[in-house]
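fyi for ur records
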Amino acid sequence: MLLTPLVLFLVLLLGALYPLTMIRGKQPPEVRLAFYPPPAVIKALSTEYYHFLSQVIFLNCTFYYGTMVEREETPNWDRMYQALYTSARLDPYNMDTYYMAQAILIWDAGMIGPTIELLEYGFAHRTWDWYLPFFLSFDYAYFRGDYEKAGQYMAKAAALNKRAGFFYTLAARYYYEGGRTALALAYLKELIPNERNEAIRGRMITRAQALEGILTLERAVSAFKEHHHGPPRDLEEVKRAGFIEKIPVDPYGGTFYLDKRGRVRTTSKLARASGKKTPQAGKAQSRPKRKD
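which gave:
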C-alpha cells in the first residue's frame, strides 16, 4: 500500500520534469542562473544533502558562465558571486568554488574584496590546502599592493607545500617589493596547468600572453631609460633604439602604448575584444591532475 503513493509521486515528478526542463531551456542564460535562498535555509531543508547541492550550484554557475562566453555577452557578476558564495557556505571544502572565484571574479569582474573574503573563508576550513594562501598572497600583492599581508600568506603556502621551495623566496620578495607584472605572470603560469575548466583556462592563457607582452615592453623601456638617462616618448622610439625587435601583439586585440606616466598600457584594457575568440586551452599545454 505504501508503494502506491510513492509510485504515483514518481510518475507525476517525471511527467513534470520534462516540460519544466524545456521551459527552462528556452529562457535566456541570465534566468538560468537562479536566485538562491540563504545558505542556512538551504542547509536546513536539504539535511545531509547540502554537500551535493553545493556542487550543483557551482556547476550551474559554471554552465552559465560558459554560455555567456560562447554568446560573447557580459555575465551577471553579482549573481555569479552570490551563487559561489552560497556554494561555499553550503560546503566550505568545495575547492572548485574558490578556483572559479579566483580565476574569473577577481580578474574579469573586479570583485577584489568579495573574492578575498571568499578565499579567506575557504582557508579557514581547508587549513591544509596551500592553494588558498597562495591565491590570497597574490591577490593582496597584485590587486591591493599590501605586500606585508601577501608575504604572510605566501609564508603559509610555503609551510603547507614544502616541495615548492620558491615560495619562500617569493614570500621574501613580496615583503620587499612589488614587481606586479612579473609576479602576475609567474602566478598564472603556476595556476594554468591545474585548471580543468576549458573556458576559464582559455581566459587565463590569454591573460598570461598579454602579461608576457607587457613584461617584455616594461623591461625594454627600463633598459632604454638606463641607457639614455631618460624615458622614451613612445614604444616606437624604444623599438628604433634597438631594445626590442618588434612591439608584441596584444592577444585581446588592443595596441600597447605608454601612458603619460611612462607605464605600459593597452587600448584593450586587458579585456577580450568583441568577436575575438579565446585560444584553445587544450592546445597550449598539458594539465596535470589537480589534487583537492
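The chain is about 65% helix and 0% strand. thats all i got for now
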